[in-house]
Amino acid sequence: MKHLRVLILNSTYEPLQFCNAHRAIVMVLKGKAEQVECDGKVFRSPSVTFRLPTVIRLMNFINIPYRGIVSFSKKNVFRRDSHTCQYCGRTGGELTIDHIIPKSRGGSTSWENVVVACQGCNLKKGNRTPGEVGIKLMKKPYRPHFLIHNSVYQSAPKSFVESWSKYISLKPSAL
Ligand SMILES: [Zn+2]
To answer: Distance from the CA of 130 to the center of ligand 1, in angstroms?
Structure first.
């Protein structure tokens, strides 16, 4: 049970982080959190029996200054964009980072101006903007508040991942 990850939501239903199932159960038993989503599996101890949570929600709001929670890095841009070219949807292969408005033309290196792109799209675009080349972004790049390590998905049962997806807008390429 230790390896099972449970998604913790703030009282406002915003995703905060993952913890292991044991900690999640303790938080529920102590009245610090409530179960929001459950797996079919039943957890039994000598004194209690209940369904294994996959998502819990804190009873008290935790104020987290969001700015800076997810630091800007190439690795995190890849995670935000699910290792997918944001122009053509290609995954895998040689992926790179593209400045939407080229750096040489004053484009910033920021969450809002940097996306994952395949070599083909990157080359085609060159030193131009998507509009000039006639290609479109699949979605508007944004500063993420929450990112998930692929390992969390890989180790999770399908039922867990499905229940998380209601609360996490980012769909991993694994889904
Ligand atoms: Zn592409």
So the answer is: 12
